[in-house]
Write a structure and sequence with these properties.
With 345 residues, the chain is an alpha/beta fold. The chain has helices at residues 50-70, 91-100, 155-173, 222-238, 241-245, 267-280, 295-300, 326-344, and strands at residues 9-15, 35-39, 42-46, 78-83, 112-117, 125-129, 131-140, 190-197, 207-216, 249-257, 260-261, 286-289, 306-308, 323-325. It has a four-stranded parallel sheet, sandwiched between helices. A four-stranded antiparallel sheet has the order 8-9-7-10. A hairpin with a 2-residue loop joins strand 2 (35-39) and strand 3. It is elongated and about 85 Å long. The two termini are 12 Å apart.
């Protein structure tokens, strides 16, 4: 929506892709047939993607439609950019930054004042995301018949000191965290998601493969984070005679998400706080999230100050019977409309 050129542009970004529904028997109806129902006495829309994040995206679109119909004339351009691929690494927003926006703007000259992503935040402002790196550990043992197990080396047993080392490493990394991340019991988790070992019940297993997620701190370079993780594994191996001679292999694969953050005094956050207060008559809560989003690409790759704000609780996203509160949809639409008028009006 072209403005008069008197102000920088405002970007509304959001993803249209959703995760699979999972076990269909865990749903109260067809996951892809949206329906109005009640949860804890609140009217909601229930369907896969209702919360994450079709609800927020449609609320923002409703705000734009309302302003168009009202005769509002923007002083800066309004960019509405639905993308795909956020759930699988952010290729949609990456393409937006590298191919879409450069057709109209030089991203180095601050032609875009800020961006809002209407992800589910329960109407709070998320201005920072921790990063996440997917890892694979290969723990080696020595196979032998189970009746002579003491003459072999179980890869399962050798994984235990590695797991303990990662638990201690996680604790140390979360002693002193950014104030925006202090609301979380563990701001930067290290989680083991899968463990596979052995191929026969009466054989001592000679290989264990564990895969997991390593939380990256705000402002922490991903290469440095990988080095710190590998040092932790190396030190754990050095304390065990077998592992010292047969060290655990670390592989980096799958999703590799850097952290991302917008400075608290950025104009987009100030404008959002004012819009939220105008509509809800309550102060805007601001914090950081322990999960990744396209915020990291817009801030890190494009240099666009970005904030997440939208309807719904992220705790029900990706779960069966996912839902978004209708009242929060309405509030989001009103706040976004107010934000547009404040920022580029």
């Amino acid at each position: 929506w072209r403005g008069t050129g008197r102000k920088p542009a405002l970007l509304i970004n959001g993803h249209t892709d959703v995760v699979p529904p999972g076990d269909l028997n865990a749903w109260s109806g067809d996951p892809f047939s949206p329906r109005e129902t009640t949860v804890n006495g609140e009217n909601v829309i229930m369907a896969r993607g209702a919360c994450d994040m079709k609800g927020g995206l449609i609320a923002a679109l409703a705000a734009v439609k309302y302003l168009r119909a009202s005769g509002f004339t923007p002083q800066g351009d309004l960019l509405f950019a639905p993308v795909i691929g956020e759930e699988d690494g952010g290729l949609g927003t990456y393409s937006l930054i590298t191919e879409g926006l450069p057709r109209f703007y030089n991203l180095d000259d601050h032609a875009i004042m800020g961006a809002i992503i209407n992800e589910p935040t329960s109407l709070a402002a998320i201005s920072a995301n921790g990063g996440a790196l997917t890892f694979r550990l290969l723990v080696h043992g020595a196979a032998i018949h189970a009746s002579r197990r003491t003459e072999g080396v179980s890869a399962i047993e050798k994984f235990y000191p590695i797991y303990q080392a990662l638990t201690d490493f996680e604790m140390k990394r979360n002693i002193d965290v950014d104030p925006r991340m202090q609301r979380w019991p563990i701001a930067y988790p290290i989680s083991i998601g899968t463990v596979h070992s052995g191929d026969w019940a009466s054989t001592v297993p000679d290989l264990l493969i564990a895969e997991g997620r390593f939380g990256v701190a705000l402002g922490e370079d991903t290469v440095i984070a990988q080095q710190r993780f590998e040092e932790c594994i190396s030190q754990a191996c050095s304390r065990d005679p077998w592992l010292a001679q047969h060290p655990v292999e670390v592989q980096w694969w799958g999703g590799q998400f850097a952290s991302g953050q917008t400075e608290p005094d950025s104009r987009i956050i100030k404008d959002l706080a004012f819009a939220h207060a105008q509509i809800t008559e309550t102060p805007l809560e601001e914090y950081g999230a322990p999960y990744g989003s396209d915020l990291r690409l817009l801030t890190g790759l494009a240099g666009i100050p970005t904030v997440q704000y939208g309807p719904g609780d992220a705790g029900v996203a990706h779960a069966p019977n996912e839902y978004v509160q209708i009242a929060e949809l309405v509030t989001t639409a009103r706040v976004v409309a107010e934000l547009i008028q404040i920022s580029i009006g």
